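Researcher: I'd like a structural prediction for the single chain below. Treat it as a standalone chain; there are no partners to consider.
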Amino acid sequence: MSPALPLLSCHGLEAGYGASQVLFGLDFDIRPGEVVALLGRNGMGKSTTIKSVVGGLTPHGGEIRFDGQPIHGARADLIARLGVALVPEGRQCFPNLTVREHLIAFAARRNRSAEPWTLERLYGLFPRLAERAGHMGNQLSGGEQQMLAIARALSTNPRLLILDEATEGLAPVIRDEIWRCLALLKAQGQTTLIVDKYVEKLLPLADRNLILERGRIGWQGSSAELGARRELWTRYLGV
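Model: Treating it as a single chain, here is the predicted structure.
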């Protein structure tokens, strides 16, 4: 794949639930190595966009391409095998698997990295998981579960990492740990799409920002532009 080509492309994307349409013709690309933030108030279509990309929802219009291959309507497991990994809202750790079993069960080599995410590297990224390696998913705190959800996604060595509500409901010290992790991934060239409400933390991380407004792209631009235009925060984000 040429570096000039998008890794993920959504064009004219329309999706919804039953008779209720949520997305109205979304157009956006994510290029290799980019970190893109997907922003907007609750109910604007962020989670619907992510579900459409990862195969949790079949769009009823438009197209989604991953590395040039159409994936709209494809099964979630097939999309995952192409190299798309999701850190879902709510973490969704398995209560009857240990931390170590989570990381071993999902291990794969879906990118071309010379330094893949091994169990040892994941423990180095999140030392707390090494300490809790034998604990079940339901024995972890919310912050530990989020670390596990991120490590589980990284264990697949994804080409595209997607985080839905990356730091929602976490204590400030745990949020800082997650931001540190994401900054490290950015420095390593991990292509990432991230949803989170903490815009101040996203600005130094994201290369570009997409703001959804009632299922459409209301604004898009660089973090420098978004940081300089606080009126956009009031208009689209309610902050």
